[in-house]
């Protein structure tokens, strides 16, 4: 079975990266969780559902509020995964620590910045949110994993030198992020969209993640290339600047 | 087809789904514009009062507004619209958004049989999308958090019919958040929002005065004047309740070998969905009753419990006829006709059509609540005061401006909710001789009030008043006349105390002089 691919793209300032990802992942998961199943003890074929609670989250670095599933454990899991991804971008850490100054002729913005698109991307990266289901195989083989929906979040990361530029970017990124949220809403509600059927009680763990006490999201994982430097691309400007900086030292 | 569909129990359930979906969408997006952070915990145990497995608060004022102004929900109307309008202190408005819950034709290629489980789940998804989308629109980002009586407030209105999207200005965007296909029709949720936020506000009357003359031939409710909008007030915690519909039991789902094709159950479980064995008959009956009565008198929705109007009034900090306090804001021609003081209050509650001066075929439509409210909010009141007065205004359903319209379409539905300001068209109908007829003045400014048995048509305030009057004791101790002899003794006591009081005042003056 082929997985359904959905693409999201956003340009953010490096200080906004984590919150932007949390917003997109949280909004997607809001549509990909089901309430906790309550099976009839007499007949495990029958079940009833609890209900999903949501909460508003106001972002600090972006002028945006989004809604996410109010499950503390799910929030922690997502936060940990996104934090790992953000931390794995080593070059980003180098930039923020000042080792590589952005104040080069290649990246300096002159004049008033009105849009994040005016910035050349410092680096590009991608985070993948994948929903999958498992299929048991005979012992000693492990379970097969079949993705059925993949959300690719393409990120262009920039850096604003001046604080006033960053303040303008808050609103601009908020607007663009809101468009992505609306895109997610439109995508998940397309008619005749495939969703894994509810299995028997014994196979519930093959479709849903039952580790959460209050909700059951579809099995999901966040992926990026963490074996080495994460999958990212350095723009030509950045490479040129890096070389010239090295020559100076 | 229509007749056979109405008899189909699946269609009845579909109508319930559509109605409850509409109300929950409205509640959730109105709450999103109140400016207060919303947080609901996930609930593990099934709750029969929660529809579509999503925790949604019930806002009292919104429920009251819907109850009084929305007579029909999808699929009985083609489109139910929610407008959000920015109201400025100067009295000008800026339409921000229009949400539409629309009914489309059934998708013949989609489902051969109606899948309740799929529909239920799909509506749950769409409701979550409404919750998510309502927080990211420009109206939310720019205006929701900074509402105040000094800056602006966001008002909303709910109506059916075709929305006027030109009010959203150039560059407005329209998106379809999603649609749910069934054999009975397609439920669509559309979002239209303004992108150009340059404040070129429009005087309210210029924007909505046109809609006054645009009468919907189908007779569906639509906006009359500015009074029909409701402010999106910040919620007090005690006035925000979890939605408590009398849904037919805890939805039961089933897994079976045949369910592999369908998420959340199989064809076998369709009959069980949403119905516990004991309530299946009653739920059908109540749904049918709701459907039948939707076109007649305004009746309590089967989705909402019958609430004590007194409790609602207390919660809203309102009292009957509270809106009369605001009548002084209006000019004479906007005021309600005078009520004669000698009118027979024991038979209060008459409702009749007022004959137009020209004697034409006049249909009466009442404009909804909050006349004058917005003026008060912007001129005199903080956002907190506006919240309490909004509750007062919302309880004023029964006393509202009556707008006469000459409706050329005979089948247009008449909506009459004015309580005591209408003259009878049929003078031959029962009146006590020598009472109301004699009170009629030549300029027709007096009011005839007739007894009216179905008190549920009178509105909550008037109904409550009628009940209280009927059950009131005949002897009221606080109003008994005092004996004259006792009166004299009381006067003597007052005179004695007056001397003491004067003495005390004199002492105070002396002490002041010394200081």
Automatic annotation (TrEMBL), chain A:
<comment type="similarity">
    <text>Belongs to the ATG101 family.</text>
</comment>
<protein>
    <recommendedName>
        <fullName>Autophagy-related protein 101</fullName>
    </recommendedName>
</protein>
<dbReference type="Pfam" id="PF07855">
    <property type="entry name" value="ATG101"/>
</dbReference>
<dbReference type="GO" id="GO:0000407">
    <property type="term" value="C:phagophore assembly site"/>
</dbReference>
<dbReference type="GO" id="GO:0019901">
    <property type="term" value="F:protein kinase binding"/>
</dbReference>
<keyword id="KW-0072">Autophagy</keyword>
<dbReference type="GO" id="GO:0000045">
    <property type="term" value="P:autophagosome assembly"/>
</dbReference>
<dbReference type="GO" id="GO:1990316">
    <property type="term" value="C:Atg1/ULK1 kinase complex"/>
</dbReference>
<dbReference type="InterPro" id="IPR012445">
    <property type="entry name" value="ATG101"/>
</dbReference>
UniProtKB/TrEMBL annotation, chain B:
<dbReference type="GO" id="GO:0034727">
    <property type="term" value="P:piecemeal microautophagy of the nucleus"/>
</dbReference>
<feature type="compositionally biased region" description="Low complexity">
    <location>
        <begin position="276"/>
        <end position="307"/>
    </location>
</feature>
<dbReference type="InterPro" id="IPR036570">
    <property type="entry name" value="HORMA_dom_sf"/>
</dbReference>
<dbReference type="InterPro" id="IPR040182">
    <property type="entry name" value="ATG13"/>
</dbReference>
<dbReference type="GO" id="GO:0034497">
    <property type="term" value="P:protein localization to phagophore assembly site"/>
</dbReference>
<feature type="compositionally biased region" description="Acidic residues">
    <location>
        <begin position="405"/>
        <end position="418"/>
    </location>
</feature>
<dbReference type="GO" id="GO:0005829">
    <property type="term" value="C:cytosol"/>
</dbReference>
<dbReference type="GO" id="GO:0000423">
    <property type="term" value="P:mitophagy"/>
</dbReference>
<dbReference type="GO" id="GO:1990316">
    <property type="term" value="C:Atg1/ULK1 kinase complex"/>
</dbReference>
<protein>
    <submittedName>
        <fullName>Autophagy-related protein 13</fullName>
    </submittedName>
</protein>
<feature type="compositionally biased region" description="Polar residues">
    <location>
        <begin position="244"/>
        <end position="259"/>
    </location>
</feature>
<feature type="region of interest" description="Disordered">
    <location>
        <begin position="341"/>
        <end position="445"/>
    </location>
</feature>
<comment type="similarity">
    <text>Belongs to the ATG13 family. Metazoan subfamily.</text>
</comment>
<dbReference type="GO" id="GO:0000407">
    <property type="term" value="C:phagophore assembly site"/>
</dbReference>
<keyword id="KW-0072">Autophagy</keyword>
<feature type="compositionally biased region" description="Basic and acidic residues">
    <location>
        <begin position="420"/>
        <end position="434"/>
    </location>
</feature>
<feature type="region of interest" description="Disordered">
    <location>
        <begin position="232"/>
        <end position="315"/>
    </location>
</feature>
């Amino acid at each position: 079975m082929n997985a359904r691919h959905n693409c999201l793209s956003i340009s953010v300032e490096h200080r906004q990266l984590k919150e932007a990802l949390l917003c997109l992942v949280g909004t997607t998961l809001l549509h990909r969780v089901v309430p906790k199943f309550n099976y009839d003890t007499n007949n495990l074929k029958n079940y009833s559902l609890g209900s999903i609670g949501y909460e508003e989250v106001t972002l600090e670095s972006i002028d945006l509020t989004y809604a996410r599933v109010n499950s503390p454990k799910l929030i922690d899991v997502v936060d940990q995964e996104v934090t790992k991804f953000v931390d794995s971008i080593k070059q980003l850490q180098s930039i923020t620590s000042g080792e590589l100054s952005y104040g080069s002729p290649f990246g300096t913005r002159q004049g008033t910045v009105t849009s994040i698109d005016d910035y050349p991307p410092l680096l590009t990266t991608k985070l993948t949110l994948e929903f999958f289901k498992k299929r048991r195989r005979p012992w000693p083989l492990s379970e097969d994993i079949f993705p059925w929906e993949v959300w690719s979040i393409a990120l262009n990361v920039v850096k604003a030198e001046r604080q006033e530029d960053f303040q303008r970017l808050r609103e601009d990124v908020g607007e663009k992020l809101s468009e992505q949220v609306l895109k997610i809403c439109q995508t998940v509600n397309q008619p005749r969209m495939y969703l894994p059927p509810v299995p028997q009680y014994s196979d519930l763990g093959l479709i849903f993640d039952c580790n959460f006490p209050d909700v059951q999201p579809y099995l999901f994982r966040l992926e990026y290339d963490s074996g080495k430097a994460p999958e990212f691309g350095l723009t030509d400007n950045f490479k040129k600047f890096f070389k010239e900086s090295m020559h100076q030292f | 087809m229509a007749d056979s569909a109405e008899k189909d129990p699946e269609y009845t359930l579909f109508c319930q789904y559509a109605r409850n979906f509409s109300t929950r969408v409205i509640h959730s997006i109105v709450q999103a514009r109140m400016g207060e952070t919303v947080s609901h915990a996930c609930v593990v145990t099934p709750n029969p009062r929660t529809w579509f497995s999503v925790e949604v608060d019930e806002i009292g004022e919104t429920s009251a507004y819907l109850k009084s102004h929305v007579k029909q929900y999808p699929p009985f109307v083609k489109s139910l619209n929610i407008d959000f309008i920015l109201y400025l202190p100067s009295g000008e408005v800026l339409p921000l958004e229009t949400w539409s819950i629309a009914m489309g034709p059934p998708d013949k290629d989609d489902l051969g049989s109606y899948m309740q489980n799929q529909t239920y789940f799909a509506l749950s998804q769409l409701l979550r999308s409404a919750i998510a989308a309502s927080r990211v629109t420009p109206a939310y980002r720019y205006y929701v958090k900074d509402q105040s009586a000094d800056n602006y407030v966001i008002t909303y209105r709910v109506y059916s019919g075709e929305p006027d999207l030109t009010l959203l200005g150039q560059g407005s965007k329209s998106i379809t958040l999603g649609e749910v296909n069934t054999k009975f029709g397609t439920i669509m949720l559309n979002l239209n929002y303004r992108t150009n936020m340059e404040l070129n506000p429009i005087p309210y009357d210029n924007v909505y005065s046109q809609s006054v003359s645009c009468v919907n031939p189908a007779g569906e409710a639509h906006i009359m004047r500015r009074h029909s909008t409701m402010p999106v007030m910040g919620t007090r915690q005690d006035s925000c309740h979890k939605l408590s519909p009398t849904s037919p039991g805890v939805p039961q789902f089933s897994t079976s070998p045949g369910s592999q094709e369908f998420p959340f159950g199989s064809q076998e479980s369709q009959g069980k969905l949403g119905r516990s064995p004991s309530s299946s008959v009653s739920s059908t009956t109540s749904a049918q009753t709701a459907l039948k009565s939707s076109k007649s008198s305004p009746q309590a929705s089967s989705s909402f419990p019958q609430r004590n109007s007194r409790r609602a009034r207390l919660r809203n900090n309102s009292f009957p006829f509270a809106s009369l306090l605001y009548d002084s804001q209006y000019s004479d021609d906007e005021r309600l006709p005078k009520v004669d003081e000698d009118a027979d209050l024991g038979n209060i509650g008459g409702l009749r059509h007022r004959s137009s001066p020209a004697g034409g075929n006049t249909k009466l439509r009442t404009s909804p609540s909050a006349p004058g409210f917005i003026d008060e909010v912007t001129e005199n009141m903080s956002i907190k005061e506006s919240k309490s007065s909004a509750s007062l205004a919302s309880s004023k359903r029964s006393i509202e401006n009556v707008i006469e319209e000459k409706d050329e379409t005979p089948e247009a539905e008449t909506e009459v909710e004015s309580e005591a300001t209408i003259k009878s068209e049929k003078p031959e109908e029962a009146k006590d001789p020598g009472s109301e007829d004699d009170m009629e003045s030549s300029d027709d400014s007096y009011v005839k009030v007739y007894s009216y048995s179905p008190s549920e048509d009178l509105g909550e305030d008037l109904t409550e008043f009628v009940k209280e009057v009927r059950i009131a004791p005949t002897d009221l101790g606080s109003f008994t006349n005092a004996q004259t002899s006792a009166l004299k003794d009381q006067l003597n006591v007052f005179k004695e105390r007056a001397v003491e009081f004067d003495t005390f005042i004199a002492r105070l003056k002396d002490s002041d002089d010394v200081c």
